[in-house]
Design brief:
The chain is 0% helix and 36% strand. It has no helices and seven strands. The chain has strands at 2-6, 15-19, 28-32, 44-48, 56-60, 68-73, 80-81. Strands 1-4-3-6-2-5 form a six-stranded parallel β-barrel.
Length: 92
């Protein structure tokens, strides 16, 4: 379950993430969902303001500093890993 907390502190982040606009640049295409139950796998994120409820804390940063580049998509069939990554299964 990808319950994501967006942290403002780089030091407490589990993963550094960059938001890109072009799908071709992204490592992971992400669909935002509006309930915990729909947050399945790495690709469907429920973003929460509760640190303790989150499975992964991410820090949004520049592309050069990022460990994973993501692009938000509208449909679940579009979401998923586009490139091999050592961070696969880290957002669950």
């Amino acid at each position: 379950m990808a319950r994501i907390y967006k942290t403002a502190d780089l030091g407490e982040a589990h993963v550094r993430v960059a938001l890109v606009e072009a799908r071709g640049e992204a490592d992971l295409l992400v669909q935002r969902v509006h309930s915990w139950g729909l947050a399945i796998g790495d690709e469907r994120w429920f973003i929460t303001g509760d640190k303790q409820a989150a499975s992964t804390w991410v820090y949004f940063c520049s592309v050069g500093m990022a460990e994973v580049k993501i692009c938000f998509v509208d449909h679940d069939f579009e979401a998923g890993w586009q490139k091999p990554s050592r961070y696969k299964n880290r957002f669950r």
